[in-house]
Design goal:
The protein has 18 helices and ten strands. By secondary structure, it is of the alpha/beta class. The protein folds into two domains: 198 residues, NAD(P)-binding Rossmann-like Domain (Rossmann fold); 140 residues, N-(1-d-carboxylethyl)-l-norvaline Dehydrogenase, domain 2, CATH 1.10.1040.10. It has a ten-stranded mixed sheet, sandwiched between helices. The longest helix is centred in the C-terminal third of the chain and has 31 residues. The protein is globular. The termini are far apart.
Length: 350
């Protein structure tokens, strides 16, 4: 359907106009090979399987992800294979390895991309920055994308709750003339709430900015700054964390999600309303230059260059482990771990 957002019109696909039975019929003769069982692989593959699609998983044998796939019920030799075997068997190859993993496996994968097959992505990185990734697909296959706007863990959790995470979709190459139907079918199959149209470049630009911005990077920076100021001014760890993180995640963001920021403001005290309205533009003015710099770095390819260089290092996983350990062991998140354990629902689990 066409939806107008002011003067901008967008194409939105809902479950009502593109039901699951339609998706199953379109992909009835396809074997969907999910390559990679790391971040997005588990959620997408399990949701597709539970929805009745023909799905197999490809993963490096005897890796941590291989063992996780076994724990999740995939059976070696039946629907769990090596990356090479799954690539050979599948007709739609869902390329869900990490960006670095995609670069590494590409010379092998392209051997299996024979005429008439389909190549699926959940991120536009590999093709948008193909001068750096060296991912140049053949012309006689379909190439499309469905990108859930959330983690694979959330995708699976929402699916079990009979909800859905919204996803973007895009067509890169339509060899068969049926790429759109295939993309939408998989989008519905993985449990998307609705699907909105994009292209590969816009998907990766918005995704990289979002991850570094309000979704992860900026919010962690703001959390750290506010917590530090409160602690320096003599506030207790509990008070500082509750006023910085707990109230936001447990009380206010659910209100924003339910009916919007203005509604959340209207359901807070008049003191909070006045202060928030007075200070929000100051924060916008302070951060807008940072976001402009961030978007430029993404658009120029500098961020992609950094990502590829960093993630391709042999010691990347070890370095990541150290960085996450430092984050976890900061006072802010040590306090957070304790406070989460005090929530009534978590106390009942003990």
């Amino acid at each position: 359907m066409k939806i107008k957002f002011g003067s901008v019109e967008e194409t939105i696909i809902t479950r009502e106009e593109f039901p699951l039975n339609k998706a199953l019929k379109i992909l009835n003769n396809e074997i969907i090979a999910v390559l990679g069982y790391g971040v997005q692989g588990p959620g997408q593959s399990l949701n597709l399987k539970d929805n009745g699609f023909s799905v197999i998983v490809g993963q490096r044998k005897n890796s941590m992800s291989w063992n996780k796939a076994l724990e999740d019920g995939w059976i070696e030799g039946k629907n769990l294979f090596t990356l090479e075997e799954a690539s050979n068997r599948g007709t739609i190859l869902m390329y869900l390895l990490s960006d670095a993993g995609q670069i590494s496996f590409w010379p092998t994968l392209k051997k299996y991309l024979t005429k008439g097959k389909s190549l699926y992505f959940s991120h536009g990185f590999g093709l948008t920055f193909n001068e750096k990734t060296k991912i140049f697909p053949p012309k006689n296959i379909d190439i499309f994308l469905v990108a859930p706007k959330g983690s694979g863990t959330s995708l699976r959790r929402f699916f079990k709750q009979k909800k859905g995470i919204n996803s973007s979709y895009a067509i890169y190459q339509d060899y068969s003339g049926n790429s759109l139907k295939k993309a939408l079918s998989i989008g519905i199959g993985i449990g998307s709430g609705y699907l909105f149209k994009t292209n590969f470049k816009n998907e990766v630009y918005s995704d990289l900015v979002g991850e570094r911005g309000t979704l992860m990077g900026a919010i962690q920076g703001i959390f750290s700054a506010q917590y530090q100021i409160l602690r320096e001014k003599g506030h207790s760890p509990s008070e500082s964390f509750n006023e910085t993180v707990e109230e936001l995640t447990q009380s206010l963001m659910p209100l924003v999600s339910e009916k919007g920021m203005d509604w959340m403001f209207s359901n807070c005290s008049t003191t909070a309303q006045r202060g928030a309205l007075d200070w929000c533009n100051k924060f916008k003015e302070a951060t807008l230059p940072v976001f402009k710099e961030l978007y430029h770095e993404v658009l120029s390819g500098n961020e992609a260059k950094k990502i590829i260089k960093s993630n391709s290092r042999d010691d990347y996983r070890l370095q990541l482990k150290k960085e996450l350990k430092n984050l976890r062991e900061s006072e802010l998140w040590k306090v957070g771990n304790i406070i989460r354990s005090l929530r009534p629902e978590n106390k009942k689990k003990k």
